[in-house]
């Protein structure tokens, strides 16, 4: 029973919060799982609510974990602690996912599969809840390691159809961003009346009314402060102290007058996050303590309970004890823990204790930490890798090895998203002692940091500087750095000639290649144009480029209208990402699949791929990619969906031309031609190698509509050059359609309809028919125009191009005819994005368990989606789903 219960099961001043938690548990008991994150300052009562939930969840299996500020560097440590009570259900999890979880927990060796680990945790939780509902309780989530936080958030979002409740407490400020989108309950201070009641009930001494009022005011509604300050005699704490600081001082006051051995025992306990009493007593014996007496004296303080687990009365108590200890005492405590920690069972925890025990450089400990870094990296713990390497560098005596480890640590911090930490580390290196190779590496790391931060355009410049340093000694690596600079320039270029400057430097300074490569092809493109460059660009589109630089391969394929290669590249990335467990490759492939599907008019495929990419991003702790979502929203004419995406894209390292291209598509569909022209003009004036050509059809149409014939003619000339160099029906058809629009010559419209009739670019085929139909209607050729306008409307409606479909419908009305609509809307208008993904997979023959694996949801959730899909589509079976015309 918690110290400030009013009666069994009831907390003073927490009726509303208790009802919210009870609703979560009742929902899970009825098979409607969910999650709730309790936020608030230290001592505000979050832990009490967690305890109350565990005590009142009758009939539930309960698994608990608590974050530790001393274990934030150990990947999956928090998740392992949470899953320990339910690992008896692990055998029910499919073998590949079971193995992924065992690797993550360090139970077996191997390379972690981040894609399967999150799903394995979900499957483990749902398996554990088969016979009784499951309550997962996590306290102090702000101290969980990042890998555990991502897995927990992934799980919490996917138990809506399962008898699983996830209850999390996190201290604010400091809540992990991964938890931000979960349902949240802010736990605020209790009222003065409740505070007075609590203080009266639990004060060890009768209180004068004025003293009670003062304590209530000082505690500011914090229940733990109300309980601890009187116990510590803190009747007049300094008004400038925060409440958590006052509480820590109250806990530290209990240490006053404590025998040295008892105090040291508490310090050792505070330094050990495992709570293993066997480890604690072994460490105490190595320090020569009288364990019985020291344990009794320490327990008498009420700060910790030494039972089957060592538990502090509150996380602030552990922190208070640890931070009250002198540095020398902390080193002694960590040294004793290192001595008794099994180097085989827990090598990383032992290495960390050894490091904390060091008072100065120690190469043996540094080597131990470096080995821990390698193990952490093998388990996917990039943040842990960075921390281990950083500490190893600090303990390394030799200057050269210290610099090497510092650079490795900076690289690991970048990989973990810690650009500030990486920049700080690089700032500690004395450039005067570096050779050209290491100076080049510093430039590369600084370039990556600048590119990720989008601080400015210095990323490409730093890559160029690195390439110059390497040109004489490592020409192959120098060319790679030059290519890095080009790729970065393609992303951050802002109509300021950046990419032209990079290419000029490459032409003048890049060492010659051993054989023609993509950098050569780009140089030819920048100097001689498309006719000379297209054959070289085609030659670069081989598998090695796909694996090394898939984004660049995609740009090249798009530039030369190689739609088959674009589709093949997307499928290769998806298959390779699934096969190797690489979330980056899988997400790139899914995003490319979505763009290809949008451009070819397969709206269901585009929506399904987008839903899956978002699921993979969430499962692996990433942010959903933007460019395919921009294309999808623009193609569908969804201005409201597009605006927040544009805002996000322009704040990050997004390709500005891509943003402007999709903006121009959106506004041309909405017939807002001035806005389309402004966006297309910005894109073309950016002068990028890639994508600016793709914008030309948008520029030409908007310029014609806005009566800017010279601009339209210049755009047509540029598009014609590209189309002639490439020579594909798609490229020639786009140019012919634009030529018909500019010149008003019917033969060009007819040619466009014929060429694009064989092209997979169905939306552009529809646009060619729309333009031809408009031209015919203006010439009063009603019968002829109706053929093309009807075709345009049907194609736009089938491909989800709603804004363009409305344009076609408007043209039909002008002829006196109404557009024909389906009796029921297409599936993509009736179903959510995830429902479409489920429906397409099931229609293709996948079973629920296979759909669950691919979409990172539980089998129960798949079945719930299917029930909704059947209802919305008016069908009753999977066979009818397979026969649905929109899901083929």
TrEMBL record:
MF terms in GO: adenylate cyclase activity; ATP binding; DNA binding
The keyword ATP-binding appears for this protein: yes
Lineage: superkingdom: Bacteria
Ranges annotated as spanning the membrane: none
InterPro entries noted in UniProt: AAA_16 (IPR041664), P-loop_NTPase (IPR027417), Sig_transdc_resp-reg_C-effctor (IPR016032), Tscrpt_reg_LuxR_C (IPR000792), WH-like_DNA-bd_sf (IPR036388)
Alphabetized UniProt keyword annotations: ATP-binding, DNA-binding, Nucleotide-binding
One Gene Ontology cellular component annotation held by this UniProt entry: cytoplasm
An individual GO BP term: regulation of DNA-templated transcription
Chain ranges of the HTH luxR-type domain: 824-888
Stored PANTHER family: TESTICULAR SOLUBLE ADENYLYL CYCLASE, TRANSCRIPTIONAL ACTIVATOR DOMAIN
Protein name: DNA-binding CsgD family transcriptional regulator
Origin species: Catenuloplanes niger
């Amino acid at each position: 029973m918690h110290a400030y219960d009013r009666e069994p099961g009831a907390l003073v001043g927490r009726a509303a919060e208790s009802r919210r938690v009870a609703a979560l548990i009742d929902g899970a008991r009825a098979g409607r799982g969910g999650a709730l994150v309790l936020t608030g300052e230290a001592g505000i009562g979050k832990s009490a609510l967690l305890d109350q939930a565990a005590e009142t969840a009758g009939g539930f299996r309960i698994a608990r974990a608590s974050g530790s500020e001393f274990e934030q560097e150990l990947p999956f440590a928090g998740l392992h602690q949470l899953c320990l009570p339910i690992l008896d259900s692990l055998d029910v999890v499919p073998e590949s996912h079971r193995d992924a979880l065992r690797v993550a927990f360090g139970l077996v060796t191997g390379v972690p599969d981040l894609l399967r680990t999150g799903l394995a945790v979900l499957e483990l939780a749902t398996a554990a809840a088969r016979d009784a509902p499951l309550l997962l309780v996590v306290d102090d989530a702000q101290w969980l390691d990042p890998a555990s936080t991502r897995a927990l958030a992934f799980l919490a979002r996917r138990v809506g159809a399962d008898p699983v409740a996830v209850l999390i407490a996190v201290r604010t400020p400091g809540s992990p961003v991964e938890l931000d989108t979960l349902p949240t309950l802010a736990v605020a201070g209790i009222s003065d009346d409740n505070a007075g009641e609590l203080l009266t009930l639990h004060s060890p001494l009768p209180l004068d009314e004025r003293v009670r009022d003062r304590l209530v005011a000082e505690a500011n509604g914090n229940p733990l402060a109300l309980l601890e300050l009187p116990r510590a005699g803190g009747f007049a704490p300094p008004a400038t102290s925060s409440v958590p600081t006052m509480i820590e001082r109250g806990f530290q006051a209990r240490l006053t007058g404590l025998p040295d051995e008892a105090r040291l025992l508490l310090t050792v306990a505070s330094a050990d996050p495992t709570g293993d009493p066997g480890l604690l007593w072994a460490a105490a014996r190595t320090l020569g303590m009288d364990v019985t007496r020291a344990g009794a004296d320490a327990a008498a303080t009420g700060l910790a309970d030494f039972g089957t687990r060592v538990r502090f009365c509150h996380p602030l108590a552990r922190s208070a004890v640890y931070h009250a200890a002198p540095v020398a005492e902390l080193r002694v405590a960590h040294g004793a823990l290192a001595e008794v920690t099994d180097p085989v069972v827990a090598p990383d925890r032992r290495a960390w204790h050894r490091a904390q025990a060091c008072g100065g450089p120690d190469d043996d400990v540094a080597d131990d930490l470096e080995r821990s870094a390698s193990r952490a990296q093998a388990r996917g713990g990039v943040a842990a890798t960075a921390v281990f390497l950083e500490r190893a560098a600090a303990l390394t005596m030799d200057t050269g090895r210290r610099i090497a480890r510092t650079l490795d640590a900076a690289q690991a911090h970048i990989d973990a998203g810690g650009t500030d930490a990486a920049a700080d580390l690089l700032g500690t290196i004395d450039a005067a002692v570096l050779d050209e190779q290491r100076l080049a590496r510093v430039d590369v790391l600084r370039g990556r940091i600048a590119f990720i931060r989008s601080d400015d355009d210095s990323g490409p410049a730093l890559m160029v500087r690195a390439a110059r340093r390497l040109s004489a000694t490592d020409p192959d690596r120098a060319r790679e750095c030059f290519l890095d600079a080009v790729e970065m320039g393609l992303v951050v270029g802002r109509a300021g000639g950046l990419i032209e400057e990079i290419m000029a430097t490459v032409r003048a300074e890049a060492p010659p290649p051993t054989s023609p490569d993509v950098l050569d092809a780009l140089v030819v493109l920048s100097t001689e144009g498309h006719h000379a460059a297209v054959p070289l660009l085609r030659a670069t589109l081989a598998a090695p480029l796909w694996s090394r630089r898939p984004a660049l391969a995609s740009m090249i394929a798009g530039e030369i209208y190689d739609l088959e290669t674009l589709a093949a590249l997307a499928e290769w990335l998806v298959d390779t990402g699934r096969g190797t467990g690489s979330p980056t490759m899988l997400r790139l492939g899914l995003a490319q699949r979505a763009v290809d599907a949008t451009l070819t008019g397969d709206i269901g495929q585009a929506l399904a791929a987008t839903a899956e990419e978002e699921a993979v991003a969430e499962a692996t702790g990433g942010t959903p990619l933007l460019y395919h979502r921009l294309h999808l929203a623009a193609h569908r004419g969804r201005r409201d969906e597009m605006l927040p995406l544009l805002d996000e894209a322009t704040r990050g390292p997004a390709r500005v031309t891509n943003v402007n291209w999709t903006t121009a598509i959106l506004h041309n569909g909405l017939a807002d031609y001035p806005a389309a022209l402004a966006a297309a003009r910005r894109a073309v004036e950016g002068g990028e190698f890639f994508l600016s050509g793709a914008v030309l059809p948008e520029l030409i149409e908007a310029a014609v509509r806005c009566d800017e014939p010279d601009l339209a003619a210049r755009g047509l000339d540029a598009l014609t050059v590209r189309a002639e160099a490439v020579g594909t029906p798609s490229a020639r058809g786009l140019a012919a359609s634009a030529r018909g629009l500019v010149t008003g010559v019917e033969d060009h419209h007819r040619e466009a309809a014929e060429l694009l009739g064989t092209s997979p670019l169905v939306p552009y085929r529809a646009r060619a028919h729309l333009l031809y139909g408009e031209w015919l209607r203006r010439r009063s050729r009603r019968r002829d125009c109706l053929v093309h306008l009807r075709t345009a409307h049907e194609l736009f409606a089938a491909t989800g191009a709603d804004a363009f479909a409305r344009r076609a419908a408007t043209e039909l009305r002008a002829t006196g005819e109404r557009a024909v609509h389906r009796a029921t809307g297409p599936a993509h208008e009736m179903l959510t994005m995830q429902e479409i993904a489920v429906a397409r997979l099931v229609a293709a023959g996948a079973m629920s368990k296979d759909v669950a694996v691919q979409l990172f949801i539980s089998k129960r959730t798949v079945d719930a989606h299917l029930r909704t899909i059947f209802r919305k589509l008016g069908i009753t079976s999977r066979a009818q789903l397979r026969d649905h015309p929109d899901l083929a």
